[in-house]
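Our consortium's second objective concerns turning raw sequence data into structural hypotheses that experimental partners can test. To show how far this objective has progressed, the report includes one record in full. It was chosen at random from the queue rather than selected for favorable results. The single chain below, 117 residues long, was entered without modification.
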Amino acid sequence: MGTGTPGTPGYVAPKNGYGSGKAIGIGVGAAAAGVLFLALHHHGAVTGCVRQTDDGLRLVDEKKNKSYALEPGSVDVKPGDRVELKGKKSTANGGSAMFEPTKLVKSLGSCGAEAAH
């Protein structure tokens, strides 16, 4: 016969119960939510300097060193501004990268003298 207590067919519950596994699950879930928030928070945002070119205003992405033609939108920026803009990236028929800003997230001051030319 079994060596357990009468009424328990061989299963013994953990001494500390099930609380620690639940806490770990909650911690992992919270960490995943934090990473997802950060990824989506900056989705569609570009930080860089606004430059005047022969074709109009361009935004040079600081992180990717990529230049976008700024489509006229609801955001008022000037050459020499360093900004973080939220909007939609697209490609024109000629293959050039375009950015349609929808929101000025942050005005980060000026880029310096070389960016305004």
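The partners drew two points from this record. The domain at 45-115 is CATH 2.40.50 (OB fold (Dihydrolipoamide Acetyltransferase, E2P)). The beta strands are 45-53, 56-61, 67-70, 81-91, 97-110. Both points have been shared with the crystallography group to help prioritize constructs.
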